[in-house]
Amino acid sequence: MPRGMSHLLPAGGSDRPVVPVGSRPHAPSVAIIVPTYNERGNIAPLVAALDRTLGALPYRVVFADDSTDATPEEVRRVAATDARLLLNHAPRRRGLAQAVVDALKDTGDEIVVVMDGDLQHPPAVLPGLLAAVEQGADVAVASRYAPGGRELGLANPMRRLVSWGSTRFASAGLPPARRTSDPLSGFFAFRRAAVDGVALRPVGFKILLEILVRGRVTHVRDVPFTFDRRRHGRSKATAWEGVNFIWHVLRLVLRR
User: In terms of C-beta density within 10 A (0-12 exposed, 13-18 middle, 19 or more buried), how is residue 83 classed?
Assistant: First the structure.
């Protein structure tokens, strides 16, 4: 049981089977890991949008939750009519990246997607990400900076400058980060084989950077997307997360 957290359970109850609704011949199974922290108002709209986008594809949604509000209860409520939803809830805050790693240990799907639960990552981009992985990419990145991508979610010019500078900082210090135009993206898909047996030791938010540097990754493909505006809740970005980011990059440079 990782780091004092509960086992991964179907969100609707421990005796509820997790059964994909429908299937596509020979389609790989997909786990969509959604790290959440106090995102109660976003759960139902996100699940509905995923269903509209992916339909009968064999997928499950794992909410890697650190919330202190009623988000877990909302996941369970929505899961009462959707057995594809699972809840991985920790009694204390792990941070986004570690929450994803913990959830990953409890899933065995061939393709894994990581996306935010705040609706700034449009589910409509998922088919492109999944197609890129099925066509041979080890990692497919939803990129704000690839041709055709846009950045609407960071309306504050200073936050945009910090985001741009952080991307340049990571790319300058870590050659594997240069395989994508957006190494700090929180929206991406990857082959499980790229991280099987790899010791992931993330700090803070940037789990993609950890996978690019430590994982078995040779082929990365960018899929342009528009980083949308937040609909509910508040941003989790803080000055402390900036410190964590710098420390994370330094650890990866030193391979620690």
Answer: middle
